Amino acid sequence: MFCSVCGTQQADAAQACAVCAGVPVTSANTSTVTPASGYEPLPPGIAGWSWGAFLMNWIWAIGNRTWIGLLAIVPFIGFFVSIWLGVKGREMAWKNKHWDSVEHFKRVQRTWTIWGVVLCLAPAVLITISMVAVAIPAYQGYVEKSRQAQLRFDAQKAADAAPAVQ
Asked: Virtual CA dihedral for 101, 104, 106, 112, nearest 10 degrees?
């Protein structure tokens, strides 16, 4: 059984959570492993999309002991494995590793998400900065050449108009 508030595992006979000062343990979300199915329900807040697993798939798989995620390295099927890890990664990570509480699990997965987003956005930011660093001098050169061409055109026009006045 798991506490409905902090997510710590409780004894089957517990009437209240010893960790979070006596908050009652809900029986709707807690049960033991069913011998026939081998399925243990997840505590609330575990299931959901995992950006860390999707963006940093094989690294995330090693860090969360979800070895099936290493299939993300395989060409062609790696994209589909990444999507699958995004959908089911949090559940697999919860089952494959010991966590102190649901909050601990969420904190660690949030860190994976932050690093995944940072590492994916960093190249985009660097490419944008590089493009701007090339584009600004190129635009300044274009403006200067355009100004020089306009000055030559105006000088030629004035030279052509000057003999007609005499």
From this structure: -140
- What is the rounded distance in angstroms from the CA atom of residue 112 to the CA atom of residue 13? 35
How far apart, in whole angstroms, are the C-alpha atoms of residue 79 and residue 69?
11
Residues 76, 73: Cα–Cα separation, whole Å: 9
User: What is the reported pTM?
Assistant: 0.56
Local confidence band at 37 (pLDDT 50, 70, 90 cut-offs) = very low
Cβ neighbours of residue 87 closer than 8 Å, sequence gap 6 or more: 49, 50
Task: Give the HSE-up count for residue 124: Cα atoms under 13 Å, Cβ half-sphere.
Answer: 5
| CA proximity to 99, closest of 20, 58, 52, 42 | 42
